[in-house]
Specification:
Helix content: 40-55%
Number of helices: 4
Shape: globular
Structural class: mainly alpha
Largest sheet: 2 strands, antiparallel
Strand order of the largest sheet: 1-2
Distance between the termini: 21 Å
Radius of gyration: 13 Å
Length: 90
């Protein structure tokens, strides 16, 4: 059985999500159900922010409110998927 990368597992969790907004807790549960390593939720939110807001002048993640990027709209999810696939070269 092929080992899946964290990116692939995260994409699977995103693909399984059908609602208009993606919640970080939903993605976290999907990820840890497939790979119980316990990734840090703040790290997931920060990575989501970095991928969704690809702007060199963006506000530092550490300055954002605690609830920032707990929800991801469909258009942001699609943008993140495109950027992740671009990083992988697929």
């Amino acid at each position: 059985m092929k080992k899946r990368s964290s990116v692939e597992i995260a994409e699977m969790g995103l693909a399984e999500q059908k609602s208009k907004f993606m919640k970080v807790n939903t993605a976290y549960k999907a990820l840890t159900s497939k790979r119980p390593c316990g990734p840090n939720k703040d790290a997931i939110r920060a990575a989501t922010y970095d991928l969704a807001k690809n702007d060199p002048w963006k506000e530092p993640f550490e300055n954002l409110p605690e609830h920032a990027f707990e929800d991801v709209a469909d258009w942001e999810r699609k943008l993140i998927q495109e950027r992740v696939r671009g990083l992988r070269g697929t």
